[in-house]
């Protein structure tokens, strides 16, 4: 037996085995160091729903290998619920590798508030056909339970108009409690409004004089959720402030316009069915009237600043009830005496005559006043 030859063969076999083993390690290890993926997650409690919200992030590293610019998921498994945004890639997907390498991919998982943990496992294949056989896993443990809280979602908006402001109070659709608003304005203006969860917004009107500063609070919070004030729009004109009426007398209709408190001009048009139309222009601070002679069947249509009013009639029903009556003279009593006596003449007679004339004039004025009827002119 040739011991030298035997030892040489064994040495050669060991060297060959070592070389083959090192080659295998190099073959399998090198690509693994070039392609890799990582999974991490974090959780937060959503008090509006009482659920844990887990945010998962998958990061990939293609090691700048040519052709590995994109990847797909061969496997995605999660517990206890699916992850939105991170899903298995179908075999017929177009594109086949929809995700960009070296860019984080984020997904969201919602889990019941009494759950203890959540997990995510993925397997990645790159566009250069490299498959990561070592699946990557992420694990998140929940501490305690996630409970639903009764909370409002208050919101307030302010809009100015010519007369004041409108404050719109809302309680978000995801609110789980009523929102109790307190509105404070100038000159001690204050109002409380409750908007229930899920109800439509509520509008509150505040006059301009109470809206020099507007604050809106919700609940016991001392910090206002809205601070605003009234700002007059550029196209505003003062609102008319006048009084209109008419009088029915025995021989006419008298229309009155009192614009003594107004700040804008008032134009009134009176259109009788008998006679000519009359227009009355009353400036701010003025009072004016127009008289239309009464006739049988007379009807007058009136418009003030373009607004139509009820027609006014002059007839027997509208006229004062005593228009056909005539004053009865008061008889003069003679001084009793024999033979009736003679008329009184001289200065004493003149005084008596003057006094009688004065009484007659006063009676006529009172009679005419009694024959007038004043009516408020309304739309």
TrEMBL record:
TM regions (residue ranges): 348-370
Would the keyword Transmembrane turn up in this protein's UniProt record? yes
The ranges of region (Disordered) come to 311-344
* Compositionally biased intervals (Basic and acidic residues): 311-322
Record's keyword terms, sorted: Membrane, Signal, Transmembrane, Transmembrane helix
Using the record, list the residue span of the signal peptide; answer none if the entry has no such feature: 1-34
* Keyword Membrane carried by entry: yes
Q: What is this protein called?
A: Cell wall anchor protein
Q: Which organism is it from?
A: Paractinoplanes ovalisporus
């Amino acid at each position: 037996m040739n011991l030298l030859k035997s030892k040489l063969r064994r040495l050669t076999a060991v060297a060959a085995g070592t070389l083959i083993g090192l080659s295998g390690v190099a073959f399998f290890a090198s690509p693994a160091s070039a392609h890799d993926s990582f999974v991490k997650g974090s959780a937060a409690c959503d008090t509006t729903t009482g659920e844990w919200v887990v945010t998962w992030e998958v990061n990939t590293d293609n090691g700048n290998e040519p052709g590995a610019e994109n990847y797909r998921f061969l496997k995605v498994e999660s517990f206890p619920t699916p992850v939105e945004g991170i899903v298995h890639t179908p075999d017929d997907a177009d594109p086949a590798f929809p995700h960009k390498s070296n860019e984080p991919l984020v997904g969201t998982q919602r889990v019941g508030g009494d759950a203890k943990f959540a997990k995510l496992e993925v397997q990645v294949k790159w566009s250069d056909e490299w498959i990561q056989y070592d699946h990557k896993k992420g694990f998140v443990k929940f501490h305690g339970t996630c409970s639903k809280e009764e909370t409002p979602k208050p919101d307030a908006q302010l809009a100015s108009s010519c007369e004041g402001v409108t404050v719109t109070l809302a309680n978000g659709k995801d609110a789980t409690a009523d929102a109790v608003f307190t509105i404070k304005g100038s000159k001690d203006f204050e109002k409380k409004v409750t908007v229930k969860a899920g109800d439509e917004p509520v509008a509150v009107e505040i006059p301009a004089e109470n809206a020099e500063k507007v604050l809106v609070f919700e609940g016991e919070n001392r910090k206002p959720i809205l601070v605003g004030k009234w700002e007059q729009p550029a196209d505003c004109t003062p609102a008319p402030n006048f009084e209109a009426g008419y009088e029915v007398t025995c021989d006419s209709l008298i229309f009155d316009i009192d614009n003594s408190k107004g700040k804008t001009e008032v134009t009134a048009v009176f259109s009788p069915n008998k006679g000519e139309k009359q227009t009355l222009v009353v400036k701010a601070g003025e009072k004016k009237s127009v008289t239309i002679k009464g006739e049988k069947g007379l009807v007058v249509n009136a418009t003030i600043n373009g607004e139509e009013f009820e027609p006014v009639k002059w007839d027997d029903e509208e006229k004062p009830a005593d228009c056909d009556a005539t004053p009865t003279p008061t008889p003069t009593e003679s001084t009793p005496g024999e033979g009736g006596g003679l008329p009184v003449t001289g200065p004493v007679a003149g005084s008596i005559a003057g006094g009688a004339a004065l009484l007659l004039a006063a009676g006529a004025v009172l009679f005419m006043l009694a024959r007038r009827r004043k009516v408020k002119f309304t739309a």
